[in-house]
Amino acid sequence: MRNRAAAPWPALATAAAITLLLALLALPVLALLLRVPAASVLSRLAQRDVLESLTLSLCTSAIATAIIALLGTPLAWVLATRRLPAQRMVDALVQLPMVLPPTVAGFALLLAFGRAGLTGGALSAFGIRLPFTTAAVIIAQVFMAAPFFVASMRAGFAAVDVRYREAAATLRANEWHTFARVALPLSRRAFLAGLAMSGARALGEFGATIVFAGNLPGVTRTMPLAVYVAMESDLDAAVAISLVLLAIAFVLLLALRMAPADPFGGRRDA
């Protein structure tokens, strides 16, 4: 009788845990949505400094995502199909930015590419100055967001049935053709997921950007930095910019959920 009477408690505890976590995730979003009227949000978004930060964020994150896809796809392919001599070290290096505090990442970038940094002298010889420029924003975004794309693409490539690669080899396809014509199309969903996650991470980058690139209006002040500045003087503007970031992240995730599950047009079950 005691066992039967105690049976509902695990279910109740599970329901309570789920409710608390969902509430923790939903309440901050709800607070943003209810903070200011829609008309006030639109008026704040029309301000010049807000438009500058929005344009800068969209441009730099788009460029960073393109660079990540271009450089990260071959790396993910190699990690998924080969056994490297220092595989664990390479894995740790690729994943390090995911666990590294962003301010530490920005400081490391400054020591690497700053005027007195590891490569600063060589870059200065060619007239290249990276810190506190728009290029520094892009570098910081690439550094912090690349692991998300590589992890997604690596999983996608690893999930491709080896028999497809073997069939391509029997047809005398070289590795490049196997990669481009077989593995990459079959990993399309992983590619889209990687783009969405790395793009969202680049768009929301703050810590590494402010340390390595600074907070210069129109040059390095992205939307997350604009929120930080606006919180001190114009709370409604901070809410408006935050809502834009929230909307972009939501659209990216929704588009990912609605994307075909396979390259032949099949859709994932709801």
Radius of gyration: 23 Å
Alpha-carbon distance between the two ends: 40 Å
Strand content: under 5%
**Residue ranges: pLDDT <50 for 5 or more in a row?**
262-270
Helix content bin: over 70%
Report the average pLDDT across residues. 84
Number of helices: 14
Determine the structural class based on helices, strands and strand pairing: mainly alpha
- Which fold name is given in CATH as the topology of the largest domain? MetI-like fold
User: What's the CATH H-level superfamily name of the largest domain?
Assistant: MetI-like
CATH top level of the largest domain is: Mainly Alpha
What is the chains' assembly state? single chain
Major pleated sheet: none
The global form is: globular
Tell me the CATH architecture of the largest domain.
Answer: Orthogonal Bundle
